[in-house]
Automatic annotation (TrEMBL):
Domain DJ-1/PfpI: 1-163
UniProt keyword Transcription, yes or no: no
InterPro entries, alphabetized: Class_I_gatase-like, DJ-1/PfpI, INH-QAR
Entry EC no(s): 4.2.1.-
Keyword annotations from UniProtKB, A to Z: Lyase
Protein name (record): DJ-1/PfpI family protein
Gene3D superfamilies: 3.40.50.880
Pfam family, one: DJ-1_PfpI
Gene Ontology MF, one: lyase activity
Length: 207
């Protein structure tokens, strides 16, 4: 089972690495990181690099497509090579998935029209401009298309996907293996719950 994860300049590392840490436990999984060219690709803010094993032209099919997001995603909404590759992978994949603003790339590729989908809360307007209906759930399944909300929700999505690829017990065993038992120290993980001071600081630091 080939799982393809595209990388691009200024992607968010956890969008890709979180699901990878879950999916790598599948015994029949072949996970390949792909980019326009093989080699290192920098995240945001360019301190961490992941290595793309292959170029887009080298991968002509996959069973699972997992598109991460990040600030760099918005700059690629009219990038024909990437969007064409996403469309080709969608034609062969059993599951087409995204994390965070990776859903914007699915939308730009025309894969979310008429579907319910989720994304990072700061990108709702862009998501809906592609004909999707935003829902604030952490993970949204629409037939073979799966979207996850911001960053950390990629782990939730990958576990839910494992339950469908294999079974619930396998997903629970992987959850136990990575000791994914969220108990955040603060209840500020969504706009509905975060205090105004946190929202104001976020706007100043990351406008």
């Amino acid at each position: 089972m080939r799982i393809a994860i595209p990388l691009f300049d200024r992607f968010t590392a956890l969008d890709a690495v979180g699901p990878y840490e879950v999916l790598k436990f599948l015994p029949d999984a072949e996970i390949v990181f792909v980019a326009e060219q093989a080699g290192p690709v920098r995240d945001v803010p360019k301190w961490l690099a992941l290595t793309a094993d292959a170029a887009f032209d080298d991968i002509d099919a996959c069973d699972v497509l997992l598109v991460p997001g990040g600030p760099g995603a918005r700059a690629l909404l009219d990038d024909r090579p990437l969007l064409d590759w996403i469309r080709r992978m969608h034609e062969t994949s059993a599951w087409t998935t995204s994390v965070c603003t990776g859903s914007l790339l699915l939308g730009a590729a025309g894969l979310l029209k008429g579907l319910s989908a989720t994304t990072h809360w700061g990108a709702v307007d862009v998501l809906e401009s592609f004909g999707a209906t935003y829902t604030p759930e952490r993970v949204v399944f629409q037939s073979e298309v799966v979207t996850a909300a911001g960053v950390s929700s990629g782990i939730d999505m990958a576990l839910a996907l494992v339950a469908r690829l294999k079974d619930r017990t396998t997903a629970e065993a992987i959850q136990l293996a990575i000791e994914y038992d969220p108990q955040p120290p603060f209840d500020a993980g969504s706009p509905a719950k975060a205090p105004q001071a946190a929202k104001d600081l976020l706007k100043r630091k990351f406008p």
